[in-house]
Prior knowledge:
Residues 122-216 form the Rhodanese domain. The chain has helices at 17-30, 52-66, 114-121, 134-137, 156-163, 180-191, 203-210, 252-255, 275-289; strands at 3-11, 34-40, 43-50, 72-78, 86-90, 110-112, 127-130, 140-142, 171-175, 196-200, 218-220, 222-223, 230-231, 241-242, 249-250. The protein is an alpha/beta fold. The strands form five sheets. A five-stranded mixed beta sheet has the order 4-1-3-2-5, with helices on one face. A four-stranded parallel beta sheet has the order 6-10-9-7. The longest helix has 15 residues, at 52-66.
Amino acid sequence: MMLDVVALYRFVPLERLEALRENLSCLCRDNGLRGTILIASEGINGTVAGTAAGTSALIEALEAICAISKGEVKHSKASHWPFSRMKVRIRPELITMRAPEADPSRQAGTYVAPADWNALIEARDVLVLDTRNRYETKVGTFEGAVDPRIDSFTEFKTFVEAELDPAVHRKVAMFCTGGIRCEKASSYMLSKGFETVYHLKGGILKYLEDIPPSRSRWNGECYVFDGRVAVGHGLKPGTWIACHACGEPLGETETRSAAYEPGVSCSHCIEELTDERARDLRARHRRLLQTPSGSQADLSTPRQIADS
C-alpha cells in the first residue's frame, strides 16, 4: 500500500490547546493516521502518514480550525509506514529557539519560490545559509552554502551573533527542511538589523519536488524526521539509514565500520555504549524484527519533529 505523507505548519494564534489536542488525537485515530503533530499558542506543525482519504480528512479539519492552506502543506509518498504511532503534543514553541524577538506573525523574511532559488543563490552578493543541524547538513546541502555546524536550533542565535554582521552580510538567503525553521530564523535576523533576508518557500522538500536533477543546485539527499531517514529528487526515498540506537544518519562508509551493529551502535555512539545497554538494545532489535508490522519506522529512532 502506498501511503500519503503530509508535512504541514502554520504560525497562527491558537487557544484552548488541551481541547484541540484531544480533538486532533481522536480525528487522527479514527482515520488511521500515524505521525506527530505539535500545537502551541503560536500555531501548528506536524508530519503524518496514512491513506489519502485519511490525510484529506485531517487537512479538511485543520482548514476549518486554522486555515492551514495559508501555511505550508506538502505531500509525498512512502511504501512503508514512516511512523510507528500517532502523537499530538502541546509545546511552548513549534520550533524551539527561545528568542521572543523571533516572531513570524510580526515579521519574517521574503519568500523565494523554488523556481527562482537558483538565480538568487548564484548572486555574488548573497550569503547562502543552511539553518539546519550538523547531522542534517552531512546528508546534503546546497552548493556553496554556509554550514553553521550547530547541534540544535537554539544554537543558531549564537552562530549569528558570532559569525555574521548586518553591515557586511546585507543579503542572506536561508533554507531548511520544510520552511518552518526559516520563519523563526529570518524573523530573528531581521530583529537584529539584517537588511534583507530571503528564505526558500516550502523548504528543501519543495525544491526537490519541483526542480529536476538537471537544473538542481542541491548536493546529496535531504534528511527527514521519519523512518525514511532521507529523500532525494522527486522526494524518492534515499540511501541513508539511521542508527537505531542514537538516531544518527549513516552513509555507506559508516555502515561498513566495525562500530556499526544494526539496532545497537554506530561510530557516533559506541564509545558511550555499556554492556547493559547493548544487551537491552539487542533484545529490543530482536523483538522489533519479529513484529508483524515490520515497518522501517518500527526499526528506527528518528529525531524529534520539534527539531525539524
